[in-house]
Design goal:
This protein has 323 residues and is of the alpha/beta class. Helices cover 48% and strands 12% of the residues. The protein starts with a helix and ends with a helix. This is Deoxyhypusine synthase-like protein. One of its GO terms (cellular component) is cytoplasm.
Length: 323
C-alpha cells in the first residue's frame, strides 16, 4: 500500500495541493535544521478531533509551543471526558429552526455536524471551579492551560476518559511540558463559567487567572531565550483570528517597541485558511503582507493554503511524521 507521504509526493503537484506539499517539506527542513515549530489553532479543530494526530506530533517532538482559541483548549477536554455522549447530525444543513430548538432543549450545543452535551460543561465546572477558588484564595494566579493541566493531574482522572488518552492533544501537551497560550480566554465556555463563579461569590476575584498581557510577556521571554540559543522558530497557523494574530505580533513588539533590534524573524510561516485577501481580512492576507508589519523576513519560507484545515492539517502532519 502506498504511504501518505508517497501519495502526496506523487500527486500533489499544483495549486493548493502543491502548496500543501511544499509546506510539509519545509516544516521537516526546519526541524532537521534544529528549529522548533509554534502551532496556532483557531476554528473548531478540537471538536473535529484533530487530537488524534496532533497528539502524535506533540509527543514526537514536531510541535513545541501552541497558541489556540480558548474553545480549542476546552473542547479537547470535553471530547476526552464525554465523547460517547456526543450526538452526530450529518444532515445539519437541513435543520430547521425548530429542529435546532429541539437540540437545545435536549441539552446539546451544535458545532456544525457535532453536538456537544451540556452536561460535560457542568462536569468540568464542578472540578475546575475548585482549582480557581484555591488560586484566588491563595493569591496564586495561573494561566488557563495550567488549570487544565492541574485537572488532568488529579488522581484517578483517567477513569473518566471516553476516548483513548493518546487522542487528546492537550494531554499530550501536558505530558511533554508544552506551553499553551489562549489569548482572549474569556471568549469560551469555561471563561463564561469563570465569570459566573466570580459573580456568584464562589471564586472571590478575577485574580485567579493571569491576564492576556502576561501571556504576551511570557511568550516574549520564551522567544528571546530561543533567539539566544539560535533556535529558528517556525509559525504554523490553522485558521485566523486571535489565535494567530496574538503570537505572531511578538516579533515586531520585541523589535519596534522593546527595541531589541537583533530579534530574529519567524523562520517559517504557513497558514491554512478559507479567507481571501479581497475582503480586507487579515486572516486572508498573503504572507508577504506580514513583511511590512515586521513579522516575516524577505527570505522566510512562506505558504498560504486556501482549503479546509480539517482535511489539510492531518495530511501535513502525516507527512511531517513520515507516514
Amino acid at each position: 500500500m502506498t504511504t501518505i507521504s508517497q501519495f502526496m509526493d506523487h500527486n500533489f503537484r499544483h495549486f493548493n495541493a502543491r502548496e500543501t506539499l511544499d509546506a510539509a517539506k519545509a516544516w521537516k527542513d526546519l526541524l532537521d535544521g534544529g528549529g522548533q515549530m509554534f502551532l496556532t489553532m483557531a476554528g473548531a479543530m478540537s471538536t473535529c478531533e484533530i487530537g488524534i494526530i496532533l497528539s502524535r506530533m506533540i509527543r514526537e517532538g514536531k510541535v513545541h509551543t501552541i497558541c489556540c482559541t480558548a474553545a480549542n483548549l476546552e473542547e479537547d477536554l470535553f471530547n476526552l471526558f464525554n465523547h460517547n455522549e456526543y450526538k452526530m447530525v450529518p444532515n445539519y444543513r437541513d435543520l430547521s429552526p425548530e429542529a435546532e430548538k429541539e437540540l437545545y432543549d435536549a441539552g446539546f450545543n451544535r458545532v456544525t455536524d457535532t453536538c456537544i452535551p451540556e452536561g460535560v460543561l457542568r462536569q468540568v465546572q464542578r472540578d475546575i471551579a475548585k482549582l480557581w477558588k484555591k488560586a484566588a484564595d491563595e493569591g496564586k494566579p495561573k494561566f488557563p492551560y495550567e488549570f487544565i493541566y492541574d485537572l488532568l493531574d488529579q488522581p484517578g482522572i483517567e477513569k473518566l476518559f471516553q476516548v483513548p488518552a493518546e487522542h487528546s492533544w492537550v494531554l499530550a501537551a501536558k505530558e511533554m511540558g508544552v506551553t499553551i497560550y489562549t489569548p482572549g480566554w474569556e471568549d469560551c465556555t469555561l471563561g463564561n463559567i469563570f465569570v459566573s463563579e466570580v459573580m456568584s461569590g464562589n471564586v472571590k476575584s478575577h485574580g485567579a487567572i493571569r491576564h492576556g498581557t502576561e501571556q504576551m510577556e511570557h511568550l516574549a521571554k520564551w522567544y528571546i531565550e530561543m533567539g539566544k540559543k539560535k533556535t529558528p522558530i517556525g509559525f504554523f497557523q490553522i485558521g485566523g483570528g486571535i489565535a494567530g494574530d496574538f503570537p505572531i505580533c511578538v516579533v515586531p513588539m520585541l523589535i519596534q517597541d522593546l527595541e531589541l533590534e537583533d530579534t530574529p524573524f519567524w523562520a517559517y510561516f504557513c497558514q491554512i485558511s478559507d479567507s481571501t485577501t479581497s475582503y480586507g481580512s487579515y486572516s486572508g492576507a498573503v504572507p508577504n503582507e506580514k513583511i511590512t508589519w515586521g513579522k516575516l523576513d524577505i527570505h522566510t519560507p512562506k505558504f498560504m493554503i486556501n482549503s479546509d484545515a480539517a482535511i489539510v492539517a492531518p495530511l501535513i502532519f502525516s507527512y511531517v511524521l513520515g507516514e
